[in-house]
Design brief:
The chain is an alpha/beta fold. Helices cover 28% and strands 22% of the residues. It is built from seven helices and 13 strands. The strands form three sheets. Strands 5-6-7-9-8-10-13-11-12 form a nine-stranded mixed beta sheet, with helices on both faces. The chain has a two-stranded antiparallel sheet with strand order 1-2. Strands 3-4 form a two-stranded antiparallel ribbon. The radius of gyration is 18 Å and the shape is globular.
């Protein structure tokens, strides 16, 4: 974690507001901007790179883009939104599995959001080839979210490039967006939907708890109680040592982290994507990166 942001997080304290814990004040801007193009896998910046800022009534926001695995079939774009105001950095990732469209749909919307403080980094389609083929594993047999062993380097080129981008941005918060064919709490069901696997950091426990409460109270209506979201320490599940990115983030980088799983059972993709956006919106609000803008 960047020393200045670590100092920021340790000094602002926590302020209760609307059932959440605010880790920073809000003072940002309201605009998309455009692109600096960087090959993250090599660290080199293109000769024709540009960076555009947008000024609003509340401040100046800068949006830039970078390319992971530039020039390969796995080439995909990462977006960095900088508020221009002090605050933490959040990294939001979708598209790890190409058959979980609600995650990358939500992430693609989130990368267009304006923020109030700190920085928001979004990788909407981590495995862009999997997304194109609508497959969990692509190439066949390659599950990207099993390529991040704890305590060791990632085990293929794409995973290494994703990890390199994370190291470059040095986030204070990590959110991984997924969906599942089943429900974690349903008897006889092997699915993991309607659950948020999280680290035990106090900051993520508080913010995830508030986001889950909001989802259950305002959005997961008309469903059986088993559809209510819950959250679980990933270290207390059978996935404790699984080489998933959320595990590598919490264990190797000691970053507050969570993996959001919404069920695909009887929930249309558009609704799943909305629930996903609401979850991220709530967590970012708790961290003071973005005051909530989603209603209804």
């Amino acid at each position: 974690m960047n020393r200045s942001r670590r100092t920021f997080l340790s000094t602002v304290g926590s302020v209760s507001a609307g059932g959440t814990v605010l880790l920073a004040g809000c003072a940002g801007s309201d605009s998309d901007a455009n692109a600096r193009t960087t090959d993250v896998s090599s660290g080199s910046e293109s000769a024709d790179s540009t960076e555009t800022t947008a000024t609003t009534s509340t401040g100046t926001q800068t949006v830039s883009t970078a390319t992971i695995r530039d020039g390969t079939e796995q080439e995909t774009t990462i977006y960095e939104i900088r508020s221009g105001s002090p605050g933490p950095t959040a990294f939001v990732e979708g598209g790890m599995h190409g058959n979980e469209e609600s995650g990358y749909w939500a992430a693609d919307a989130i990368r267009k959001w304006d923020i109030d403080a700190g920085t928001l980094v979004v990788l909407p389609k981590a495995n862009v080839r999997g997304v194109r083929h609508e497959r969990r594993e692509w190439p066949p047999g390659m599950d990207l979210n099993r390529k991040f062993p704890i305590g060791e380097p990632p085990t293929n080129a794409l995973a290494k490039a994703v990890w390199s981008a994370i190291e470059e941005h040095d986030p204070d918060l990590f959110i991984d967006l997924h969906s599942s064919k089943g429900i974690l709490r349903r008897k006889g069901d092997e699915g993991v939907g309607q659950n948020v696997f999280r680290s035990k950091h106090d900051e993520i426990v508080t913010s995830v708890d508030a986001a889950v409460e909001r989802l259950n109270d305002e959005y997961v209506t008309g469903y059986e109680p088993v559809y209510d979201f819950v959250h679980t320490p990933v270290s207390e599940t059978k996935y404790d040592t699984t080489p998933m990115l959320v595990n590598k983030m919490r264990a190797d980088r000691d970053v507050p982290s969570c993996l959001f799983e919404v069920t695909q059972d009887d929930v249309k993709p558009e609704k799943r994507a909305r629930w996903t956006r609401v979850f991220v919106d709530s967590v970012l609000d708790s961290w003071g990166i973005r005051s909530s803008r989603l209603n209804g």
